[in-house]
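Obj.: predict assembly geometry.
Materials: sequence records (below).
Method: joint structure prediction, all chains together.
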Amino acid sequence: MDVIKTKKLTKKYGQQLSVDHIDMVVKKGDIYGFIGRNGAGKSTTLKMISGLMRSTEGNIELFGKPVHDEMSRKRIGILIEEPGLYPNMNAYDNLELQALSLGITNKKRIYDVLALVHLTSAGKKKVKNYSMGMKQRLGIALALLGNPDLLILDEPINGLDPEGIKEIRETLIQLNKEYGMTIIISSHILGELSKLATTFGIIKDGQLIQQISKEELDEKCKEYLAVEIDNAQKACVILENIDQNIEYEVVNQTTLHIYSQLNSADVIGHLVNAGIAVISSYFHNQDLEEYFLSLMESGCSYD
Amino acid sequence: MINLMRMDLKRLQKSKSTYVILAVIVFILAVQFLAVYVALNPDIQKWLSTYGFIFQVSGVDKMRTLSILQFFHLSMTQNFYVLIIGLFVVLFNCYERETGFIKNVLSTHVNKTHYITSKILVQSLYIMGLILVCFIEFMILNLGLGFFFKVDNFTEIFTYLILLWFIGIAVISMFTALTVWLRSKSGCVSIAIVYATGLWIMIVTTILNILGLADLMNYTLLYQVTGLLDLIPILDVTSLLRLFLVIGGFTILYTTVSIFGLSKKDV
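Observations (raw structure tokens):
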């Protein structure tokens, strides 16, 4: 089931396209990592999905219903940009206001979410005296209060210390695994996102240039031995003689990518002994950050 | 909508500004009450002059025919009532937007009518409380001064206070529309001050006179506020209907404008 489905979602400010015909699909149970540079259109997209911003064109479906459907919207929790908090109130009071607006009468729920984000000890301390990390955690608590089926988090780990980041990560994974909560999360900390997300959406200049699953990404980012030789065709025969099940890719006439875990010295030795000139060889290991940067720098779009 | 009202009421209860505004108004009115009492009472002036006080009083009601309702009307409605409402509505509405809490609310509440109506109703309840507190303050002070101002009959007082509150609801709707469209707290406060102090009246009246539409000024909310006391003794079905039409018309108009603005503008 598609929790979020956008079709040609567009936002224009005057003549400037902020979000450009995005077709996004977030499936039930996904942790969707939404990646893009500053100003790429992440927050605008998330605001439109949350119903906080009107789209110029296109449509959005939440749980198979239009974005303005009351019941669908009751099923979401958001933290977009800065957490929306009253600075002169404490954590409990902020949560109580949100609970009242959601029709939650059981006060236990407030204490539960406070415990979930480790803010029980904050007591009567006013939000204006909170650290940035505490505010972020309270913002997440507000989003979780209504026990949503879809959690929309825009830069939720901003300002958190490493311990805080780990706690939030574990909480989100727990919510996803135990309650089947679908989560869409944007972050600049790509290393952290790669530990969390099951699907990635990459946005550039308002266009969703790629949606890729964690498995597909791992495949693309798989470690390989790049070998530059003078004759790729002849080298292929040698490689298959070394191991019949060898996994490799002919990139061009002079470059091979070998994915199988082989001893690089042995491989190069075999190639040299067969009279193939090995010009260079190196191990390539790409993580999400490098993959993202390579996409940003490539300047091309991918479907 | 009930949930939104509960939230707004709780916020009203938890906000310091709720009590600060009320306390400031109560204090100002008390000072004003005592000042007028002194100005109208030659015995007190004589007594105070022995301590070095000098009085120069003009334009006061030497016949001492001023009733408590008239005095209340003079104190509250000479721009004060509309100004209080304006400042209160602007602070209440803009603060929610300023803190970003509005994002939490509007992401789960699709119906903008509920959101606006809840705000107007809750603020109306506050203004009702404020009117009552201020009037009770006047009554207590008057009682303490041995009924220096004559007390009007209950029906007149009740009718006046109810109608003043109804006009207040329309004024709340107007300032709500202003906060939805303008959003800027400082901008809204400036406009509220300009509106409440009536600085615009001279300009608009001149323009309407030129256009031969001077009577239109009789249908403004500010006119309803200032002219309310004169209406009470001669209140009949026609004048009441006319008043309700003006109040109802403006309330519906400004509420619609607010809902439309909230639906059309991004949060």
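Conclusions so far: Chain B has twelve helices and no strands.
To do: check interface contacts against the pulldown list.
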